[in-house]
Amino acid sequence: MNGRRAGRLSLPALIFLMLAMVAPLLAATPIAGAAQSDGATPGALQVCATCEFTSIEAALAAAPEGATIEVLGGQHDGPILIESPVQLIGIDSPVIEGHHDGTVVRILSSDVTLQGFTIQNSGQNFDKEDSAVYIEGERVRILDNQLHNTLFGVNAALAHDLLIEGNTIVGMDVDMGIRGDGIKVWYSHRTQIIDNDIRQSRDLLVWYSDDVVIRGNTVYDGRYGFHFMNSNNGIAEQNRLFDNSVGIYLMYGKGFIIRDNLLQGSRGPSGQGIGLKEIDGVEMIGNIIYDNRVGVFIDNSPLSPVVTNDFRQNLFAYNDIGIGMLPSTRNNVFTENSFVDNQEQVTVLGGGNTGENQWSENGRGNFWSDYAGYDADGDGVGDVPFRSEHLSEQLMSSWPILRLFRFSVAEAAVDFGSRAVPMFRQNPVIVDEHPLVEQVIPANAAKPAHIPDRTSARLWSGGLLLLVITVIAWAWRGSRFSGAETRRDRSHAEQGAPGAPVATSGGRS
Amino acid sequence: MSRSVLITLAQREISDALRNRWFIAYAGAFVVLSVALALLIDSSAGYSGVSGFGRTSAGLINLVLFLAPLMGLTLGAQALTSERERGTLSYLLAQPVSLFEIFLAKFIGLAIAIGAAIVTGFALATLTISYLSGGKGMDIFLQLTGLTVLLAVVSLSVGYLISSVAHRTSTALGVAVVAWLALVMIGDLGLMGTAIMFKLSPSTLLTVTILNPLESYRIASINLLKDSLELLGPAGLVATDRFGSATGWVLTGILALWTIVPLAIAYLAMSRKEQR
């Protein structure tokens, strides 16, 4: 009897329990949808002209820890100070206006989310690092915001586990030197910077921060695309960095993965696609390094004698210098990279050769567009080693003033002379024992910017050809205008009286 | 000076040039080589999907530096002497045309003919690959073409000067070839050596170098294609520093001077000779 009753009682209890477990799930789905459509999230504090709260400050003051505050459009004045863990969500991109004074949004708490705002017009004070968003707290998330006309964009200090995703950051339209940094990350481990669009700023700085991931960002028209300093184990992948002074600069650290990035048009005074200064253990794989002053610049890296840096399957194309290294750089391994038509493929800045670096591994070297060898056995590896020994290049490394004669016939003559007369032959800058005969294409890398317009080129050159034909036809017709007389004289000319036909046509006038 | 006389004589000069085997050979070589080079550039870019101004496309500047002055100098050197040797000059002068008209019309006609050859070469090369300008746009390409035609006109003018002074075509041709060698190669090689031996300052080296019209052309075209002269090391930076955004104009000005001055001297020498 007791058993039966217990059974009868336990059935509703079970149903109740199940409902209780499912309820949050059922409830959660409509909440997410509602937040997008009409902003009616149960439990959320709303800010708008007719809502319970009319200012962000009032809502923040009233919000308990972990609350969600929804701001429904409108213009709001900065500065905003967030000192407790809340989710501040902008719907219909509300604007937070900084009025050109100080930092606009200051986050001094952990576990804060800031999403969907347009934050604009910060102050311009470098001493105080005026920013659109300043962060000092852990696990903060900055999502889908538009930061416009700000000195610094996102400025984080001691903000571990920060996530910066999907933001657009546009700096001030002033000289490079007096702009602030689009993103500055200081002492914030495990920060993730993902899918942001940053332009017209100075640098994207990562200082003293380990295990940072930078993925899928576009950075252009700035000074440093990314600048890692005293940071270890960073990952940069799938980013597009173009028209910056320098693409990626790594300084003092170890353990980086630089993968599938585009580094294009880094043409500042010391323009470098990627610069390595005293960096141990870099894996650089599948990047497109295109049209930079120096593709990869290597200064005393790796620092430790027992570590190697690996460069694999990168494309170095149309740079002034593909790889430029300072003397006594060693223990770098280059395999399956493609060096396509760089003015100088590899050079030691200051002269010398790259003796202690490795240009092939396991019988696979690199592709060199100026390789003049052959592959008789068809295994994809050239049968004679590639040697880079342009005498002119070596002269130019030793006497930079001679670069003035680049592309001159004299330069070509010097190279020809050194090939023809072995007495002038120098030690080659590099020897690749196993050069590849086909390019290895970085298939996963971000795509280049500025693709030339071929159709208009075709139209223009077609037009030029037409012009030439017209001119020739006009001259031809004019010169034989005077009919029978000219023709008779021409037959004279063919019998050996040159010049006679044309004289008559001159008399036409 | 009658315009119709000028036009008629220029037309005659163009069609004469089209019958001149030297001209045909030069023009043919230029067109074929520039198209071949275009194909080479195309194959060197491969299937990597990126294109630009690299070592191979720089070969175009080399080609121009080689052929355009040779064309201008030798055709210019023949222009007046051969006319004199054939006796057609006296014949023409017996007509109601002045020496100046003949002088100028021949120059214009030859310049148009050589210009046409160069434009054809550039246009066909661009039709082959479409990014001679390194993806920098058509205005750069058009400016480069214009600059190249100007270089050819400069060498034509120098050739004209040789022709007006020389007595025989063979002498004129010999002098023209020596002048070509000096301008194209020997001068630069000498400067390279001098720069190292005497440790010339970048600014001195730059000044001496751009006196050579071929060098002015080369530096101007690099400035066009690369947007800056940083590629040319310290001396290039001196140029940017000294001339700034006017760099292209300064170099073009040097080329223009090299056209006008030799031409004026040539006319003076010529008229003196004909008066005797």
Mean pLDDT of chain B: 86
Question: What is the distance, rounded to the nearest whole angstrom, between the alpha carbons of the first and last residues of chain B?
Answer: 23 Å
Largest sheet of chain A: 23 strands, parallel
From the structure provided, what is the oligomeric state, counting identical versus distinct chains?
A: heterodimer
Query: Could you state the CATH homologous superfamily of one domain in chain A?
Result: Single-stranded right-handed beta-helix, Pectin lyase-like
Shape of chain A: globular
**Uncertain ranges of chain A:** 24-39, 482-509
Strand content range of chain B = under 5%
For the record, the CATH class of one domain in chain A is Mainly Beta
Task: Classify the beta-strand content of chain A into a percent band.
Answer: 25-35%
Q: Tally the structural domains of chain B.
A: 1
List the main descriptive attributes of the protein structure presented here.
heterodimer; A: 509 residues; alpha/beta; Pectate Lyase C-like; 23-stranded parallel sheet; 13-stranded parallel sheet; 7 helices; disordered C terminus; B: 276 residues; mainly alpha; globular
